[in-house]
Amino acid sequence: MIVERIAVVGAGAWGTALANVIARAGRAVTLWARDPDVAAAIRERRESPRLPGVLVDERVALGALSANRPQGDAILVVVPAQTLRAAVCDLAGAVARGTPVVACAKGIERGTGLFMTQIIAECLPASIPAILSGPSFAGDVARGLPTAVTLAAPDEATARLLAHSLGSATFRPYHSTDVRGVEIGGAAKNVLAIAAGIVAGRKLGASAAAALTTRGFAELVRFGRAHGARMETLTGLSGLGDLILTCSSVQSRNFWLGRMLGEGRTLDEVGRAGQLAEGVFTASVLVEMARAKEVETPIAAAVAAVLDGTLGIDAAIEALLTRPFRAEG
After folding, report:
1. Helices 278-292 & 253-262 angle (0-180, nearest 10)
2. Are 171 and 141 in contact (CB under 8 A)?
3. Residue 318 CB neighbours (<10 A)
4. Residue of 188, 173, 174 lying closest to 115 (CA atoms)
5. 308, 312, 17: which is closest to 191 by C-alpha?
6. Which residues contact 272 (CB under 8 A, 6 or more apart)?
7. Cα(290)–Cα(44) distance, rounded to whole angstroms?
8. What is the C-alpha separation between 141 and 148, in angstroms, rounded?
9. Could you give phi then psi for residue 156, rounded to 5 degrees?
10. Is there a catalytic annotation at residue 293?
11. pLDDT tens string for the chain (329 positions)?
């Protein structure tokens, strides 16, 4: 069995890339833009302003949310984590009972501490919440370069159905039922990527970068296990795999932001450059949730303090370097 009609809500870089993926898989796909100007630009040039230089596959149909509501046998919601609630609630009444609604954002909602599928469950209680995450840059995926991700749903049948419906020769979704583990990997790695970027911006060297990524992964694992994630998920594509990618490339918005901070730019200056970095919004809530579970996350805590302006970068680095020596684990 295959899902034949799929709607993609959000025509940013990642939404456009996923629409191309779905078209290559042979499914009927409609890309729904929230901004009418973006919809008009794509319709005119077959190119998203958010992903310049990459053509939108001619098989992708286009829709504007200002005029209609998206419908499909599955819906991918591809918007930033902090706007996912508004986007999903707008779908109320348009989603049939039992329709998989797949979050494609990596973060935790500020103010509530809810993960993406929990927001979907609140706003669309008759739907089946799912999550897609993993090591993937929109440009690579849109151009058809080989990519593997994780797609998780509460039950094996739905997860397998979605994976088979989206998969193709160059886009390989591995299915899972560990929804929380997949969500935690995506959210935590963004915060850690900011730290990796700071290390690069401060020119602390490749050895420090490797140590940061490794110890950051230990934090991710501790946080994940405290919230019921499975170890094979945390060491898989949506955990370790995404962490490696995001902590090592300026294509990562979180890494890029961290590098700019490390080079001496302020958060306001970086923000004016127009680069959305999900880790900025996730850091403080992740640290709060870790403390509630008595989970040590010194790197994430340092990032949150730097972003909140309560600790300077040099002081944060010194605090990490002068922590007591301990056994590895």
Report:
1. 90
2. yes
3. 11
4. 188
5. 308
6. none
7. 47
8. 10
9. -60, -40
10. no
11. 789 999 999 999 999 999 999 999 999 999 999 888 888 888 888 888 888 888 999 999 998 776 677 888 999 999 999 999 999 999 988 899 999 999 999 999 999 999 999 999 999 999 999 999 999 999 999 999 999 999 999 999 999 999 999 999 999 999 999 999 999 999 999 999 999 999 999 999 999 999 999 999 999 999 999 999 999 999 999 999 999 999 999 999 999 999 999 999 999 888 765 566 999 999 999 999 999 999 999 999 999 999 999 999 999 999 888 877 777 77
What's 57's DSSP letter?
Answer: P
Other Cβ atoms closer than 10 A to 272 = 10
Q: What share of the chain is helix, strand, coil (3-state, %, to 5)?
A: 50, 15, 35
- Listed in sequence order, the residues at least 6 apart from 257 whose beta carbon sits closer than 8 Å to its beta carbon are 194, 197, 270, 275, 277, 279, 280
CA dist 266 and 39 (Å) reads 33
264 backbone dihedrals φ, ψ, rounded to 5°: 110, 0
153 contacts 128 by C-beta, under 8 angstroms: yes
Q: Which of 106, 189, 203, 293 is catalytic?
A: 189
